[in-house]
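Hey, I was hoping to borrow your eyes for a little while. I'm sending you its amino acid sequence along with the backbone structure tokens. Take your time with it, there's no hurry, and the full record follows here.
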Amino acid sequence: MAIGGNPWWGWDALLSGGVTHDSHYITLTEETVLVHEISPGTALPGELRYEIAKSQAQEHVTEVRRRTFWSSFRFRLPGDEKATRMNVRRVWRTDLDQFLALLGAGQTPR
């Protein structure tokens, strides 16, 4: 699932290196949640930034908002006091729903 900062920044800006916010790929395995940064210029998973035990990951997810075009949730990254807003494009909505269900973090849609 690819997630990023402000949803109004398009992939064109990301690919041209014009985006100043962090974008991430989040992968859920049987035991962990992996958070990779997105490599500038390729829009593919890059460096592994965080590895969180799946059993603890639910505690990191708050404020789930499912919207028509952009959904979002807050995810507290390790070492950060404040949760980061993760925007999810419409094309990744099914993956977001599956991710939240597998974590047991699916909250009532707003």
